[in-house]
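Anyone have tokens for Trigger factor? Sequence:
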Amino acid sequence: MVLKEVYSQNLKRKFEIEVPASLIDKGFEEAIRSRMQRNIYPGFRKGRVPFDFVAKQEEGLIDSVIVDQVYRHWCDIKDRENLVIFNDQENIAKIETDGYKKEKANVSFTVECELLPDVPEIDFSKMTVKARTFIVSQNDIDLYKERIKDNLVTWDDVDASSAAEDGDRVVLDLNGTVHGKPFKGGQLMDFQCRIGDGKIISSLNDGLIGMKSGEKKVISVAFPEDYHDREVAGKEASFDTTLKSIKRAKKVADPDAALLTQLHCKTQEELDTEIKKIITSECEIKLNEDLRRQIESNLEKYDFLVPDSLVEQQKHYIKMDTPRIADDKLQDEALRRAKLSLIFAQFATKKEISLDKADVARHLMTVSAAAGLDLEYLANIYRNNKDFANSVTLRLMEGKIITALLGTVQRESTESTVEEILAAQKQEIEADKKQEAEA
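Reply: yep, here.
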């Protein structure tokens, strides 16, 4: 056996390997004898066929025998050398068979792979984080109700003569093509969006302004080079667009009654109880996010090699969320997330944390209810859009891991107020929007 490392960079490796001809001979003999017992050959009784005759009849079998021995040999090498491949990503190539077929020479091949790094094992039970506590007061409830009432609107259909404006909700049929050919994800029926919310590409958003209900229009869209869908990144597309309906926000006439109706309450006492639940939930989400950041900050001191392929994967997901992020920030953030994901994965394995179909179903139902989207529509996207499915899976798994971590670390409690917590949350949201706009 010959094992030669011909390339090593970071965790990437390239090996040149030889399989001894004797192993190929042995594998071929075993395959032939198996066929002698199982197969029927004209002129011979089953199991009584001469070896040389079967070997001649089945000489084409040698190629599959060689491939089988190559893979077995590589598996033996991995076990013996303690090579653990990251994500089972390995490329076996350049299997040279001519030498064996002509003169029974050893069979050589190459393997390119990326090794799993040595991830430090961390005792999270010894990690301490500062955990803020809070009490929801009646004043908090009253202030929160006023904020909600200020934003209560009804969505009314506009008349056929009115054109779509910034802030309107519209329903569209879209048929996107690149060079006249449809592309995956470019055909959408009854697609709902809000003009100006930043969730659709800007040129498509701008093309909707001024359209009227029932109007059809071809909107040209230039996808940026760094667009997350690589099939259309950097390309010009045309969208045959039909605007089916327009709804416009209108302040409610009686905010107090509207708030009771929206939260399914009959009395002010019921409303206060429901508002308290909402405030508590929002504060707990924010505080858990604070704890998560503290945990991540504590983990940044650990330095170890990270697979390049994992960093590239993280870049892809980051650019889906923040398409205009600067390249230097993208590299640093991707590397940070890659390290954290490996540490979290090790913790998940140790704690036997896993994700199942029920977790995904519950998440899609929650998103559907919160965003007012059809559940089947979301489920279809999950089934057919690999990027979306991977993003959902990663976030759900990460959420379960963080929940388990929060139950493991030590906490130092400090008192806080609802106003402080929610004000910090608002500032962070505004800062994120500003950062994305500047990226």
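The longest strand covers residues 236-251.
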